């Protein structure tokens, strides 16, 4: 039965996550990129400067600051997708898939700019009066109540799409590969006793126990609410990105002669038509599909977090929001790809992700697999913290805050469940729910893009001093 469910998820993800998702996210993003006058390029200096400015709001306007919102979004997106997701893209699509991840990052910055602007422009409230954002409120207030079924459609998809399916799965896989051996697990009397009582083999018993451990650690943070999540994110994000950068820098320096060939492969194989147009399109779709799981642009989750910001100025929030894809899909994914292509092997059978990355870092750095495991733990945990808030916000919208609080326990239980399921099913489930979330989000963003352009023009037409 579980195999049939897993295959259904994979087939459904292939259907929605192929050409439809590619044209929706990349095609829609390109339209926003061009129609906005290349906002993600022209106003990148303004976005960087915005990080240093005094917040334009008060505590009554939101629960966190704009910078905390960005840190929390990056904490969610800079996760295992940046390591396992990139490795999967390389295994399935080759080095050329990375180029299309870059394209997705560039247009994703523009998409996230629009999401950030709309999150403040159409900020909603829960039934207790707390400010909230997200596609649900953008659709209701921006498009009108007749579009409410579309808002509910997003919220329902968001309940499942934000469950950190792949993070729990791959973190468990990485821990097993790094700190255990098959013989050790098979001969463990403790695991045998646990597995015997539950009717599970030793490996699944280990995964179950590790999933429980993950859930306990995550519970300590997420049960404290968005403010605790934001505080933890602002500490974890600089540390984990900085450490990861130093690790890849070491690999690059010690393999500097191979770096030009890596980038040559990325560019040449991105447009390789020797295998036919179908192969070329497949590479582009793989890159875009994995990027969707990395930067979340057009998925709608960013507008949920930025909607919790105390910022009252939509354009300023949009400028900060658009920095996210430049960090996750731009910087971190490139670091991963370079490290794997320099020291790893992507010619493997089946769908493999974190295992490929672990082998590359083990080869490139002394005890590199152990160091990568430390980064992986930070990446995975930070994603789980922020994604729990996304799901809780969707639950609050659908069921009210009193019942919505129960979602946190549902989220924690899902971490245990998805620590056990096969990788292929986990990837399929992620892709499917992300595609379902992207449909209402991009419909709303594209329909309301003229209002974003108008707000942008008015903001930059004014004297900058009046906006500070």
Based on the model shown, name its key terms.
468 residues, mainly alpha, two-stranded antiparallel sheet, 77% helix, globular
Q: What is the overall number of helices? A: 24
Largest sheet: 2 strands, antiparallel
Structural class, from secondary structure content?
Answer: mainly alpha
- Spans of at least 5 consecutive residues with low confidence: 273-283
Shape descriptor: globular
Order of helices and strands: HHHHHHHEEHHHHHHHHHHHHHHHHH
Structural topology:
Layout: H1 2-16, H2 19-35, H3 39-42, H4 44-50, H5 66-77, H6 84-93, H7 96-121, E1 124-125, E2 131-132, H8 135-143, H9 148-161, H10 165-179, H11 182-187, H12 189-198, H13 202-222, H14 226-254, H15 259-270, H16 277-295, H17 301-306, H18 314-321, H19 323-343, H20 354-364, H21 368-399, H22 401-404, H23 407-418, H24 423-461
Antiparallel strand pairs: 1-2
Description:
This protein has helices at residues 2-16, 19-35, 39-42, 44-50, 66-77, 84-93, 96-121, 135-143, 148-161, 165-179, 182-187, 189-198, 202-222, 226-254, 259-270, 277-295, 301-306, 314-321, 323-343, 354-364, 368-399, 401-404, 407-418, 423-461; strands spanning 124-125, 131-132. Mean pLDDT is 78; it is low at 273-283. The chain has 24 helices and 2 strands. The chain is mostly helical and 468 residues long. It starts with a helix and ends in a 7-residue tail after the last helix. It has a two-stranded antiparallel ribbon.
């Amino acid at each position: 039965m579980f195999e049939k469910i897993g295959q259904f998820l994979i087939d459904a993800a292939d259907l929605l996550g192929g050409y439809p998702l590619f044209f929706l996210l990349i095609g829609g993003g390109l339209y926003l990129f061009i129609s906005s006058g290349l906002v993600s390029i022209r106003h990148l200096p303004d976005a960087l400067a915005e990080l240093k400015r005094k917040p334009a709001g008060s505590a009554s306007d939101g629960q966190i600051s704009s910078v905390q919102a960005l840190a929390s979004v990056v904490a969610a997106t800079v996760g295992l997708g940046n390591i396992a997701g990139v490795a999967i893209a390389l295994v399935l699509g080759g080095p050329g898939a990375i180029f299309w991840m870059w394209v997705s990052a560039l247009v994703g910055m523009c998409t996230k700019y629009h999401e950030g602007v709309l999150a403040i422009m159409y900020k909603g409230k829960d039934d207790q009066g707390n400010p909230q954002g997200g596609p649900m409120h953008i659709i209701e207030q921006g498009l009108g109540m007749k579009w409410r079924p579309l808002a509910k459609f997003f919220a329902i998809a968001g309940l499942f799409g934000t469950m950190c399916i792949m993070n729990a799965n791959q973190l468990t896989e990485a821990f097993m590969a790094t700190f255990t051996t098959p013989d050790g697990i098979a001969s463990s009397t403790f695991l045998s006793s646990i597995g015997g009582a539950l009717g599970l083999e030793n490996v699944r018993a280990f995964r179950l126990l590790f999933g429980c451990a993950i859930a306990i650690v995550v519970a300590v943070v997420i049960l404290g609410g968005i403010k605790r999540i934001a505080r933890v994110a602002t500490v974890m994000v600089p540390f984990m990105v900085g450490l990861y950068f130093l690790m890849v820098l070491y690999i690059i320096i010690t393999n500097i002669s191979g770096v030009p060939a890596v980038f040559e492969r990325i560019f040449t194989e991105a447009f390789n038509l020797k295998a036919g147009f179908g192969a070329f399109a497949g590479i582009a779709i793989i890159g875009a599909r994995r990027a969707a799981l990395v930067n979340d642009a057009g998925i709608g989750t960013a507008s949920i977090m930025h909607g919790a910001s105390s910022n009252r100025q939509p354009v300023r929030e949009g400028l900060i929001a658009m920095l996210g894809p430049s960090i996750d899909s731009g910087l971190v994914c490139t670091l991963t790809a370079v490290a794997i292509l320099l020291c790893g092997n992507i010619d493997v059978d089946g769908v493999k992700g974190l295992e490929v990355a672990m082998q590359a870092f083990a080869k490139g750095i002394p005890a590199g697999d152990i160091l990568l495991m430390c980064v992986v733990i930070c990446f995975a945990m930070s994603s789980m913290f922020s994604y729990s808030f996304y799901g809780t916000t969707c639950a609050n919208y659908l069921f009210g805050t009193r019942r919505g609080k129960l979602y946190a326990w549902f989220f924690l239980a899902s971490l245990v469940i998805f620590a056990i399921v096969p990788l292929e099913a986990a990837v399929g489930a992620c892709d499917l729910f992300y595609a379902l979330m992207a449909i209402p989000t991009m419909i709303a963003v594209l329909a309301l893009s003229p209002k974003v352009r108008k707000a942008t023009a008015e903001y930059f037409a004014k004297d900058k001093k009046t906006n500070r």
